[in-house]
Design brief:
The complex is a heterodimer of chains A (320) and B (325). Chain A has helices at residues 48-55, 82-88, 100-103, 110-116, 125-138, 144-147, 157-169, 187-204, 215-221, 239-244, 249-257; strands at residues 4-17, 20-33, 37-41, 63-72, 75-76, 93-96, 175-179, 207-212, 224-229, 232-238, 312-313. Chain A is an alpha/beta fold and 320 residues long. In chain A, the strands form two sheets. Chain A has a seven-stranded mixed sheet, with helices on both faces. A four-stranded antiparallel sheet of chain A has the order 2-1-4-5, covered by helices on one side. In chain A, α7 runs parallel beside α8. Chain A starts with a strand and ends in a 7-residue tail after the last strand. Chain B is α/β, with parallel strands linked by helices and 325 residues long. In chain B, the strands form two sheets. Chain B has an eight-stranded mixed sheet with strand order 6-7-8-3-9-10-12-11, sandwiched between helices. The chains are: A alpha/beta (320), B alpha/beta (325). Chain A binds chain B through residues 43-44, 142, 156-159, 186-192, 194, 213-217, 219-220, 240, 243, 253-255, 257-262, 265-272, and chain B through 53-54, 159-160, 189-195, 197-198, 201, 216-220, 222-224, 242-243, 256-257, 260-266, 269, 272, 274-275, 277-279, 281.
Amino acid sequence: MSAPVLNISNLSVNYSTDRGTLHALRDVDLHIQAGRIVGIVGESGCGKSTLISTIIRLLSANACVEEGEVLFQGEDLLALDAKAMRKLRGNELAMVFQDPMTSLNPVLSIGRQMLDIQYRDDGSKAEKKSRSLHMLERVGIPDAATQLDRYPHHLSGGMRQRVAIAMALMTEPSLLIADEPTTALDATLEIQIIQRLRQLQRDVGCAVLFISHHLGVISELCDEVVVMYAGEVVESGGTRQVFDAPKHPYTRGLLECDPASIQASDNILPVIPGQLPDLTDPPPGCIFQPRCDRSVAQCSSQRPRLDGQGHRAACFVATS
Amino acid sequence: MKEVLAVRDMQVRYPTSGGLAALMAGKRATSIDVVCGVSFAVAPGDTLAIVGESGSGKTTLAMGLSGLVPVSGGDVVLDGNAVAMNSKGFLQPDRRRISVMLQDPVGSLSPRMTVQRLLAEPFRIDPELADDPDAAALRLLDRVGLSREFAGRYPHQLSGGQARRVGLARALAQKPGLLIADEPTAGLDVSIQGEMLNLLAEVQRDMGLGIIMITHNLNIVRHAATDMAIMYLGRFIEQGLPQRIFERPRHPYTAALLAANPSVNPATAIDRIQLLGEVPSLFERPRGCEFHTRCPRAQDVCLERFPQRQGVANTQVWNCVNPVD
């Protein structure tokens, strides 16, 4: 097996808030092999955004990495200085954000922005321009030559997101992080973007960390999936393994709640009862125990670990 | 059953200046058609889901109905009475009968008011509704399943799901006959989505509400709606009973929309109808059938005129000359 591009182990991140220390991430383990697409699925407040910010080192000032390491191609990102980090960002480590309107500069033309992102490369302006053009064509932008002179507000949401993807892949990164890139898009465009991304990933050969709360999107795009709940990884494994035979009660609950998977057309939908635990004072045992319908005595005193290889779940009563 | 609301051939047109250059050249003001001739009816206890992509005119339709944007044509009948239009084209429905749950749950609540004040406001404005506004506000809180400790909170202290519940409570204050819910589950996590829809169904049953639900999430339509309409560039291109449409969509756009629904079940990804391109701009509305630019089944005639409506009224109707089998 090839060496992992990204290797996160034992990562814990805290935020200091008025109400005390908020444990946003606890003992997170995550590995991405070269050329794989790994999806993180989880609901609001599960720590997805904190995890990405830790990887690209854009955590807010009140955050503190308690312990753990983030190895990117064998190098600990948490130990790098700002200058070395800046060298990696956008080059080896690219990112597509959720909202393409705010990630593109509204006062610069698309062509200008695509030129700027190649500032590290040698080569004439004409060469860079033709590379931009080529990249826009690869992401499926019609009439790419005209688009280079246009501004972000001229483009529709789907086109903007494709421009953002083109810019992220321009430098042929080793890892692309995509933070809910299709949430702002409509269903027919969402599918277009996902299929395009899948194809580009094969061409460029990069690894992708794809964040979404849409189970269907993760299922169609990703090779592996990591399920997060309240700052912890509760289950991980191959996408089909996890979705076809979920082990953790939370994953099972999520899949049961997904209206897409419910065929009966009565209008009472299943829900996961209860609410997210207060992360300034997380429960001593399993993080999901207060909402779990299968918990046993052990669950409220001891924390289950995510052990082993392959398809695994942090649960004492995991169904296998 | 007598319907709460009946709409015939409603149209909304927005004027556009065409930019400064056009103005200086002395061009006449132009306009774009955002909603072009939609007809539907909602009976008490029924939920009509209006589905469509961004820019298809769903929200404009809702705003037109509630008198927030002027409409340029059509008949609207509320509780059996024709709704009058003022000189500027705004519909003047009895606002106590039509309530709106707006799309942005936190943004639609005043940040300076506590939940208690937000909920008591309708009762202060219309004292006929309740003797004691504060007690009535607390009853609303119970009604939407929020505990009384929320009464003292401000909107920014609420989660998306909780803010939605407050929005629903406000919409219910005047005991409306029709509730327009604009994207009631957008941005909610799957586990909370179900709670919101279950609550809507419960309130509907208890109060005999008619609901117009605007959404682009097809998954919830199957569970929550008794009727559905698919909107594309301001028109209903297919309309009918959800079970019929889900089982056998006839308009190619509906079929593509249903197939584009990413699912955890890998079997659904097979046979997906691919749509080309993107939704055309309203400024450059295609001739003939507006969908022909993206349609895999388009014929020459589609470029010439908008297709006639076909099918069985109240069951399933569509506007397409070459429907999917």
